[in-house]
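Quiz preparation item.
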């Protein structure tokens, strides 16, 4: 609803998701240079409430941050969704500790729909419309002056190896039906 865009840092590659498609994917992320960022935005500081990261990924090799919200130069005080080899991880982190849920990663070279959600104190990971993992967690307070990065962590390490399309962030948790659609 807020329609806040991202700033491009460096050179992020933009290509059709398939031959002849109008829809584009973004790739070419690299440590400290090629990524998207949105400066602090109060609408993305979820406190202890619900939130959702949702979009499409086509990983090429193991590793990398999909979305990271935190303090630049650190991975603290935020929430992140990452792809690391054989698993996806959604976590929230505040000044005391972290809450985590891990699930099986999507297949390299194949487009997959991903949703990382915090709903009523439960972290959920969804792949291609199916819930693959959940974990009841302590609701970490995500109310610091975090930036939001796509394709690179706020620690400027572990850029994403792969392509992203149609990513969005929401301060609500979609229903299973909405995720499937």
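Solution:
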């Amino acid at each position: 609803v807020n329609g806040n865009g991202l700033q491009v840092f460096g050179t992020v590659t933009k290509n059709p998701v398939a031959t002849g498609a109008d829809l584009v994917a973004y790739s070419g992320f690299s440590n400290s240079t090629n990524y998207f960022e949105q400066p602090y935005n109060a609408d993305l500081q979820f406190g202890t409430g619900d939130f959702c990261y949702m979009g499409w990924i086509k990983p090429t090799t193991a590793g990398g941050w999909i979305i990271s919200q935190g303090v630049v130069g650190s991975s603290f005080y935020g929430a992140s969704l990452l792809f690391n080899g054989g698993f996806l991880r959604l976590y929230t982190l505040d000044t005391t500790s972290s809450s985590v849920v891990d699930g099986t990663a999507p297949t390299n070279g194949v487009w997959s729909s991903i949703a990382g959600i915090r709903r009523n104190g439960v972290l959920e990971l969804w792949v291609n419309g199916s819930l693959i993992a959940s974990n009841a967690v302590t609701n970490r307070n995500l109310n610091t002056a975090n930036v939001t990065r796509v394709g690179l962590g706020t620690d400027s390490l572990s850029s994403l190896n792969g392509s992203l399309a149609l990513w969005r962030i929401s301060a609500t948790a979609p229903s299973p039906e909405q995720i499937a659609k």
